[in-house]
Write a structure and sequence with these properties.
alpha/beta; 10-stranded mixed beta sheet; signal; Arylsulfatase; N-acetylglucosamine-6-sulfatase activity
């Protein structure tokens, strides 16, 4: 009897493992949910219980996942192409760098070289509904149609953010206005409709992209085409929820002392009535997310009823993060601080550990490679990212082998979206918000965790996020008193390594974006910051290597404004050779 029980237990364990693997010979289905401006650090994920039930508890959360450009257009193009914004030239949402962005996307040949096209070539049916890109509009929706979709129903500008007056455009049909119906209701109906279409075709695997606009701000458009931002509009049934919720009162929330860099450091402390309004704005964001929570629940139920859930990967993330009150900022994104760039990422599916939290460093530029790998498609040589480790063995290996950095970049203006009244000469638009940054985190031993940034006015920021997780003390501010040593090395030696790493990353291409230290040390003996801090490299980094700087501020990618370029001006640790000579 003991032997029988033992055999039974072993059989049950083996069955459970096999049940979590993709069905043999059949490619997995993929559902991708992309919210708009959803935060991680303001605790929005604590208010979506159905997502927790179906995704967080049944999948893996990647707590160190980052967008590389904290703005809708550039972030989404990076996500769908696997290329950083400096390699797509989609760098803003305003002319000339982002207006008619879809036409820039087309002109660069990206409409034939992005994820849905590659998936279709691999035998997938592909569907999409919701927001695709900014400036994909009622005027240019067919110039040309976005390629690669079996079925599509896109939100169109200028009504993308008009919750109660949205325009949608289905397949090759003309746009249709929907007055008086909350766009979140429409997106849910359209998404579930496409899911039914996909399920009905059992001969082909499917990919479905679902892109709600929640919790993005609502845009009011009056009869004279005057536009103004306000809080998102939740469904009526959710409008009463969370009456006592407040923006988390973290140390960087509306602080008594100035913090941040460049224009952020000059902001005045918010008055009590402004804080009260921003708490209301925050509650409306949480309420608007309830429709997304219910949508995910319905997607899971449809997949389960069709007996497809066990062979489907579900990926949940946001295009960028969001701040409300941190460093005294009004509601918005577009900065390099943690609230804006560290975003939710949850993946559920065959072989993905349940209820786990991963420490590996990942970014949006890694998502296209990840999806292609899931679909069994060879990865492209021109990707700027690398596939995300999903299984436990892959994640364990990644702790020792995977890169530890994220490239962060931004060009153009910053906008405050809350609709709040500004005082004391403040404005809802900041003209010079161009910067280059990086995040670097020691996953293996947690010895270091830095954010390093250079604004286009050449102001520098450095935060030691092991001791200063809320980024309150800029160690490179003129009034700062930085430590004499970090990681057992002189402070200036550590800064010089971070600057050289950013020098490579700010214009990197392809594999160099994943392995930047190899560009500096072609011998291959330096893979991370700790290796680079070897004392024998001090002269190379401190005295010889060019430093990152801007010549001037520009609203987009203008090479001669961006200072030295590693490809032409950078040095390698090889007898002082230049990168151009080496390559």
């Amino acid at each position: 009897m003991r032997l029988t029980a033992s055999i039974l237990a072993t059989w049950l364990q083996l069955s459970a493992v096999l049940a979590k693997k993709p069905c043999a010979g059949k490619k997995p289905n993929i559902v991708f949910v992309l919210t708009d401006d959803q935060d991680l650090h303001l605790q929005s994920m604590d208010y979506v219980p159905l997502i927790k039930k179906h995704l967080t508890d049944k999948g893996t959360s990647y707590k160190r996942h980052y967008c590389t450009t904290s703005q809708c257009c550039p972030s989404r193009v990076t996500l769908w192409t696997g290329k950083l914004a400096h390699n797509t030239n989609v760098t803003d949402v305003l002319p000339p760098w982002g207006k008619l962005m879809f036409l820039i996307f087309v002109d660069q040949g990206l409409n034939e070289n992005w994820l849905p096209v590659w998936l279709q070539e691999a035998g997938y049916d592909t569907y999409y509904t919701g927001k695709l890109f900014n400036s994909h509009s009622v005027d240019n929706y067919d110039k040309p149609f976005p390629a690669g979709w079996t079925g599509s129903d896109f939100l169109l500008d200028p009504f993308t953010y008009a919750y109660m007056t949205p325009w949608y455009q289905r397949n090759r049909e003309p746009p249709v206005a929907h007055d008086g119906i909350n766009t979140q209701t429409l997106i849910s109906e359209k998404a579930l409709g496409f899911l039914d279409d996909a399920i009905s075709n059992r001969d082909k695997p499917f990919f479905i992209g679902i892109a709600p606009i929640a919790p993005h701000s609502n845009m009011y458009i009056d009869e004279n085409d005057v536009r103004a931002w306000g809080p998102p509009i939740p469904l009526d049934k959710h409008a009463h929820l969370f009456p006592d919720a407040q923006v988390p009162r973290t140390p960087n929330f509306n602080p008594d002392v100035e913090s941040g860099g460049s224009w952020v450091r000059g902001l005045r402390k918010q008055d009590d009535d402004v804080v009260e309004y921003n708490d209301h704005y925050y509650r409306e964001r949480l309420r608007s997310l309830q429709s997304v929570d219910e949508l995910v629940d319905n997607v899971i139920k449809r997949l389960e009823a069709a007996k497809l859930l066990d062979n489907t990967y579900i990926i949940y993330t946001s295009d960028n993060g969001f701040h409300i009150g941190q460093h005294r900022m009004q509601p918005g994104k577009m900065c390099g601080y943690e609230e804006d760039i560290n975003v939710p990422l949850i993946i559920r599916g065959p072989g993905v550990p349940e209820g786990e939290v991963s420490d590996v460093v990942t970014a949006h530029v890694d998502l296209a490679p990840t999806i292609m790998q899931l679909a069994g498609i060879p990865l492209r040589d021109d990707f700027d990212g690398a596939a995300i480790p999903l299984t436990k063995p892959e994640q364990k290996k990644a702790v020792n082998k995977r890169h530890e950095h994220v490239t962060v970049e931004f060009w153009g203006m910053a906008y405050m979206e809350g609709g709040v009244v500004f005082r004391g000469g403040e404005t809802d638009v900041v003209l010079n918000n161009t910067y280059k940054s990086l995040r670097i985190i020691d996953v293996k031993k947690n010895d270091y965790n830095f954010y390093y940034s250079i604004w286009c006015n050449n102001e520098h920021e450095l935060y030691d996020m092991k001791t200063d997780p809320y980024q309150m003390t800029n160690l490179l501010h003129p009034t700062a008193k930085p430590p004499k040593t970090i990681l057992g090395r002189p402070f200036e030696a550590v800064v010089a390594r971070l600057d050289a790493l950013l020098f490579v990353l700010k214009s990197c291409k392809q594999k160099t974006c994943v392995e930047p230290w190899r560009a500096l040390h072609p011998a291959g003996n330096v893979d991370n910051l700790k290796h680079a801090l070897n004392q024998r490299f001090d002269d190379f980094y401190i005295k010889q290597q060019k430093k990152v700087r801007f010549e001037r501020c520009e609203a987009g990618l203008v090479i001669d404004a961006e200072g030295p370029q590693f490809e032409t001006d950078g040095l390698l640790y090889r007898d002082g050779s230049s990168w151009s000579e080496w390559t």
